[in-house]
Amino acid sequence: DPRRYLYREFLAHVAYFQPKIFVMENVPGIRSAIDGEFFRRVQEEARDLGYRVHSEVVHAWRYGVPQKRIRQLIIGTRRELPIFSSSLFMHATHRDPGLSSAAPLLPPTTLWEAIGDLPPLTAGKGEHEATYDLDRRAQFRKQNRTWYLDTVLEVSRASTLNSHVARPQSERDIRDFKRLRQGENSKQALRRGVRMEFPYDQKSFADRYTRQHQDRLCSTIMAHMSKDGLMYIHPTQLRSLTPREAARVQSFPDWFVLPESRMHAYRLVGNAVPPLVAQAIG
Hints:
- The chain has helices at 6-17, 37-48, 86-89, 111-115, 134-143, 147-152, 171-179, 186-191, 243-250, 262-271, 275-281, and strands at 21-26, 51-59, 70-78, 126-130, 161-165.
- The protein is built from eleven helices and five strands.
- Helix 9 (243-250) packs parallel to helix 10 (262-271).
- The protein has a three-stranded antiparallel beta sheet with strand order 1-3-2, covered by helices on one side. A two-stranded antiparallel sheet has the order 4-5.
- It is an alpha+beta fold and 282 residues long.
């Protein structure tokens, strides 16, 4: 696959501009793909350009992102500079899920803190540019922490609500959505005796449908959402997450305008480095 060599395009720019620091981001699977061949190549070829190279895995939720995102970083610094290490320069602000509240960090940001104030929608409904439900937001403020809403999403800077449009769902899918509890996937539902209607092989694709839990981290937002949202079912509504909800889970502020094409919007958001993580690295 020629895309495996795209890292050389990146390193060609590094060679030309000679930045003091560069950052590459990828999925953790790059460590094991083809026995780690490309993981080694990236670092060896960057060292040949005069960089000290350090690789480490970053957990996005430790910086306030409300999802289970884990990514591989490869960071190069010019030889005259200190080597980069997250333990030195990227101090976590939020604790891991399940840790005691006595830990000297903020609790993980939940999915509901990211999307709970948005107007409810049914499948196939919504407009590319709409208005906020300010009464709902006021009620949300009384019952939830609003650090994420105010500081990360910067809702006060957005005059209109962009890309809060739900994709259409079949009646069969909606019936299956109803059968799932919050935080449960279809494999778990089948195990407790629920009869699901979806037509996929119920052994190979048993966990294809996942209903998110409002009080936990969301599943990792991926570009696959452009094809279907079955792994991202809304915790309280019978539909999958909208592009705006996916963007909020990635920590994009509400004033960031997404493409009107739902497919392009999901792909852009899913492929992105969460801004909160980028800020922590910066």
